[in-house]
Amino acid sequence: MAKAVKYIGLLATFLLYHSLVKAQPIVSSKDSSQVNRSRLRTLIVGSSVLYGAGLVGLNEVWYKNSPRQSFHWFDDSQEWKQVDKVGHFYSTYHFSLGASRAFRWTGLSEKKSMFWGAIMGIVVMTPIEILDGFSAGYGASLSDFFANASGAMFLYGQHALWGETRIHPKYSFHRTKYPHQRPELLGKSFSEEILKDYNGQTFWLSVDVDKFLPKGNRYPKWLNLAVGYGAENMIFARDYQNINAGLPPYRQLYLSLDLDLTAIKTKSKFLKSLIFFVNMIHLPAPAISFSSAKGVRFHGWYY
User: Fold this and answer.
1) 241 in Cβ contact with 226 (< 8 Å)
2) What span, in angstroms and rounded, lies between the C-alpha atoms of 177 and 171?
3) Distance (Å, rounded) from C-alpha 149 to C-alpha 169?
4) How many other C-beta atoms can be found within 10 angstroms of the C-beta atom of residue 280?
C-alpha cells in the first residue's frame, strides 16, 4: 500500500504551492500574524474538498474490491530494510512544508504556519493508515504512523530550534536489475519502478553547511553536504525471503555533495515554484557509498 500512495502528497503539495505563489502575497518579509480570513477560509474549504475527493478515489482504486475486516495492526517494521519507512518520513515532511507555505499565504506567522503545517501533514497521512487497518490485505502499521509523525516533526523541530530549515530531506532514483525478476511487485516500467523498486531509491538529508557557520562566512550558500540511505538485493520484503532466493540484502550509506536551489534569488513566481519542487530531489553528484557487501566505493556521478 505504501509503495504508491506515499508519493501522492508530493504532487498535491507542488500544485497547491504553485497556485498559491501566483497570488499577490499579503505578508512582508517580516513575521506577521495578521490573518486574511478570506484566504484562510478558501484554503480550508478547498483543501478539505480536494482531500476528501482524494480519499474517495483512493478507496475506489485500492480498497473497494479488497476484502474488509475489523481494524487490525500489521507489523511491517522489518520489511524492505526500512527504506519504505524513510519514504513515509520524506513524504510527510514535504506535505507539511507545502501546507505551512499555504498557511503562511493566509497571513499566519511563520511559527504558527510551521506548527499547523506539521499538524496538517500528520492529519492528512493518518486516514490512509486507518484505511489500511480495515483492509484484509494490509493492516495498520504503527511504524508507518511513527515515520509520518517524525517527518512532520522534523520540519517543525528545525524551526523551533533554529528558526529556519537547515536540513532538507531529498530523494533520488536509479534503475536497477531487480524489477524484471518480480515486475508485478517492483514495477513493469520506469514510472512504476520509481515508486516500487526500493533498490533504486536513495533518501538524503541535505545539510545547509553555511547556516551552521558563523555569520559572514564565505562558504557557498548553494553548496550542501548530503548523507544518504538506501538498500539493495531486495525482491521480497523480508530478509529471510531474499536470502532464500540467493540475494542477501544489505544497507548502503552515502556521502555526497548537493545543490541548495533555494539559494537562487528570483522574482519569478514560476521559478520559485519550480525551485520548490526540484529542491525535493538530490541532483546527480559525486558520492561515496559504504556497505558491508561492497565496502567503500566512489561514484563519479550518483543519482
Assistant:
1) no
2) 20
3) 14
4) 19
